Amino acid sequence: MTPDLDLTADVVALTRALVDLPSESGAEGPLADAVESALAALPHLAVERFGNTVVACTDLGRPERVIVAGHLDTVPAADNLPSRLEGERIHGLGACDMKGGVAVALRLAAELTAPARDITYIFYECEEVEGERNGLRRLALHRPDLLTADFALLMEPSDAGVEAGCQGYLEADIVVRGTRAHTARAWMGVNAVHRSAAILQCLADHEPERVVIDGLEYREGLGAVAVRAGVAGNVVPDECVITVNARFAPHRSPKEAEEYVRGLFPSSAYDEFLVTDAAPGALPGLARPAIASLVAFLGATPRPKLGWTDVARFTELGVPALNFGPGDPALAHTAGEFVPVEQLRACERKLGEWLR
């Protein structure tokens, strides 16, 4: 049975209802069902479903079209369900990243029956996992017409302010090999874990660069996120794989980022460097008229987006885009994430005024 979402409810109640519908990446079906059902009941919207991605459009013949987008999925739970309201904060899985922003977009979808701009609302799946599964990527491949617009707004948490551009990311496996032996005769082998110490030390010593673009400082990041080695407690490991994650400023391409990361390690310290996932960032583009206009309307001082968002995807498609949503981005993916009620109401009010 499809759960009901009341889009006429207060944004606080709607945010809690969204949080209370679990939707970890790959399991967004029940939430997508609820979103589709609620939007399909609105006569001013044409609704389409693609997997667990829901698209709803106005078609009023306005001279300008805006995309308002938010992802439905969350990272895995951390004993932070169901939602709870404490004072002026809604706590719970995805409250910050980004069901608060989705609630704002759904409220506006219901309320704005005759906006000044045509609007395409996109609620999509699998943003928090590998790019191959991303719902917007799938739309870009199979229905690019739905991503055609004069401007796009990602409801990513930005403390109810504007975060411009975004970092790119690169994930790679650094493979270090050795020679197996019985641990009783360890000297007859080469321990790949011990050999990998040079890689780990380089990562520990690395100081991320700070790159200023359009007056915004993008602080890069690089670190090991997994180490895999060993087949048994009595076998000298003959392979150690260190997975590294790099977040790079948008002035670099993924290829340039790969070359930069490779260059940090002596070539003799590893045997293979295998890129497993990568995506370009997006330059802030603050001089683009569409972006400058919204920034001026909001009266916000732009900040850099530290992290990757689908602003990069829209930028690749030639659509100017910004991040604007409730919640502190530093709380994203944490067990204690929350979204302030004040920011939910502020984003709903400001964005509604701009779209009317």
Which residues sit in consecutive blocks of at least 5 with pLDDT less than 50?
none
Instruction: Record the strand order, biggest sheet.
Output: 1-2-6-3-7-16-8-15
From the structure provided, what is the oligomeric state, counting identical versus distinct chains? single chain
Total strands: the figure is: 17
Can you put this structure into words, describing what you see?
The protein is α+β, with helices and mostly antiparallel strands and 356 residues long. Helix content is 28%, strand content 26%. It has ten helices and 17 strands. The strands form four sheets. The chain has an eight-stranded mixed beta sheet with strand order 1-2-6-3-7-16-8-15, with helices on both faces. It has a four-stranded antiparallel beta sheet with strand order 12-13-9-14. Strand 1 (46-50) and strand 2 form a beta hairpin. Helix 1 (11-19) packs across helix 3 (95-111) and helix 3 (95-111) packs parallel to helix 10 (341-355). The longest helix has 17 residues, at 95-111. It is globular.
Draw up the topology in text.
Elements: H1 11-19, H2 29-40, E1 46-50, E2 53-57, E3 65-71, E4 84-86, E5 89-91, H3 95-111, E6 118-124, H4 135-142, E7 151-154, E8 162-164, E9 168-177, H5 192-195, H6 197-205, E10 210-213, E11 216-219, E12 221-229, E13 239-248, H7 254-262, E14 272-279, H8 289-298, E15 303-304, H9 311-316, E16 321-324, E17 338-340, H10 341-355
Parallel strand pairs: 3-6, 3-7, 7-16, 8-15
Antiparallel strand pairs: 1-2, 2-6, 4-5, 5-17, 8-16, 9-13, 9-14, 10-11, 12-13
Helix pairs in contact: 1-3, 3-10
